[in-house]
Amino acid sequence: MKIAIYGSSLVSSYWNGAATYYRGILRALAAYGHSITFYEPDAYGRQDHRDIDPPHWCNVVVYPATGSGLAGVLGQAFNADVVIKASGVGVFDDELMDGIVSLSRPGAVRLFWDVDAPATLAEIGGNPGHPVRRALPYLDAVLTYGGGDPVIEAYASLGARMCVPVYNALDPSTHHPVALDNRFRADLTFLGNRLPDRERRVETFFLAAAARLTDRQMLLGGAGWEDKDCPPNVQKLGHVPTEAHNALNVSARAILNISRDSMATIGFSPATRVFEAAGAGACILTDPWPGIDMFLTPGKEVLVVRDGLDVAEAVQTLTAMRAAAIGQAALRRVLTEHTYDRRARLLDGLLTDLAGLRPAA
Predict the structure, then answer these.
(1) pLDDT digit string (tens) for 155-212?
(2) Class at the top of the CATH hierarchy for domain 2-169+340-357
(3) Residue 359 confidence (pLDDT)
(4) Residue 164, exposed/middle/buried by CB under 10 A (0-12, 13-18, 19+)?
(5) Quick check: do 2-169+340-357 and 182-337 share a fold?
(6) How many CA atoms lie within 13 A of 239 on its CB side?
(7) How confident is the model at residue 263 (pLDDT cuts 50, 70, 90)?
C-alpha cells in the first residue's frame, strides 16, 4: 500500500523525541512491501541538525513551513491508500488534521497517530471543537505509542472507532552494544529535552540525586538545559545526536529514565530512551509508572526509583557487576519481545484489515 504520513521529522531528532520511534517502526513496516512517504516541515532548526540522510525505505518530503508549502503536500494525500496525521508536528497541526480527512481519496484508510496520547487527551478532553475531536468520526483508527487500556478507553469515550497502542521498541540495527567512550563515562546519565512537564521531575529525580552525590560524575544530555542551574558535578552535553546514543548508553554505570508528568500518571508509556538504553545493554533506573512489568521486570531487568533519594542510594550501591547483569537481562528481554519488527507485524495486519473493510475507491 501507499502510505502518506505527516509528522514532525524522520531525519532529525533535534527537539523531536519521536524520531527514533518513527525510524524504527516505519523501517520495519516498509519490509512488508509498503511504499511510505514521510512529510515533514522545515521548522525548529531540525533540518540544520539532521541525524540521518533520507533512508532508502522511506521517501522524505521536506516542505516549507508556510501556507503554500502545506497546501502542496496535503494535495498529495489523495494519492495514498493510507493517510496518517501524527501528533506534535509543531506547525499547522490543526490544518493537517482537517486536511487528511477532507483531501484523502474515498476508500483510503485514515489514521491519527498520537505519539503523546496523555498530553493530547488532556488538551482535547474538554474541547469538543478541537480538530482531533472533530476528526475522530471520520478516522478508521487512532494509533498511540503507549498508554494501554486507560488511553484506549479515553479515546473510545471521545468517539474513536478503534484505538491501538503500537508501543515503542528496539531497532537492533540502530541501538546496540558498542565500546565504551571516555567522553561519556559517568556514574549516572540522563538524556531528555527540557520540557515544561518534565523539568520538575528532572529536578526531583536527577538534580536532587546529583546534589547528594557530590563525588559522582553525572551527565545531562538533551536540548534546552544550557541555562539550568545544576550541581557542579553535572556536565551538560546539549543535544546528543542519534549516532552517539549507543556510546552514551554503554559508558555510564547507569542510565536514568524520567517520564513526563502525564505519561507517569497514565502509565504503559515506556519512552524510546528505555528501549535504546536496553538495546545497548545499559543498566536502567526508571521512575515508577503503571505497566513497567509489561516491558521490563523490576529488580531484574530495570531498577525502579521513587525520588532523588532512591536514585542516590541506587547509584551508591550499584556495583559494576550488578549493573552489567541488569543491562544484559534487559537486552535479552527487548530482543525477544520488544523489537520494531514485532510491532510492525501488528501494524501491517491492522492496516490490511482496515483496508479490507473500506469500500473501493
Answers:
(1) 999 999 999 999 999 999 999 999 999 999 999 999 999 999 899 999 999 999 999 9
(2) alpha beta
(3) 54
(4) middle
(5) yes
(6) 16
(7) confident
Q: Domain 182-337 - what CATH class?
A: alpha beta
Q: Name the nearest CA neighbour of 247 among 313, 172, 185.
A: 185
Q: Which amino acid is at 348?
A: D
Angle of helix 340-357 versus helix 19-30 axis, rounded to 10: 70
Backbone angles phi and psi of 207, in degrees to 5 = -70, -35
Phi, psi of 245 (to 5 degrees): -65, -40
* Alpha carbons 162 and 158: distance in angstroms, whole number: 11
Which tens digits make up the pLDDT trace of 282-331? Answer: 999 999 999 999 999 999 999 999 999 999 999 999 999 999 999 999 99
Q: Which residue has the cell 542519534?
A: 242
Q: Return the DSSP state at 252.
A: B
**Are the beta carbons of 203 and 221 closer than 8 angstroms?**
no
Residue extents of the structural domains in the chain: 2-169+340-357, 182-337
Residues in the chain: 361
For residues 119 and 117, give the distance between their C-alpha atoms in angstroms, rounded to a whole number.
5
The answer to whether the beta carbons of residues 25 and 166 sit under 8 Å apart is yes
Alpha helices in the chain (DSSP H): 19-30, 67-74, 93-102, 117-124, 131-135, 148-157, 196-202, 208-212, 245-251, 261-266, 272-279, 308-317, 320-337, 340-357
Residue 337 to residue 150: CA distance in whole angstroms: 22
Strands 284-286 and 35-42: unpaired
- Mapped to the 3 state alphabet, what secondary structure does 259-296 carry? CCHHHHHHCCCCCHHHHHHHHCCCCEEECCCCCHHHCC
Per-residue burial over 237-255, b if 16 or more Cβ lie within 10 Å, else e, is bebbebebbbbbbbbbbbb
Q: Name the maximum alpha-carbon separation found in the chain.
A: 67
This prediction has a pTM of 0.91
Average pLDDT over the chain, rounded to an integer: 95
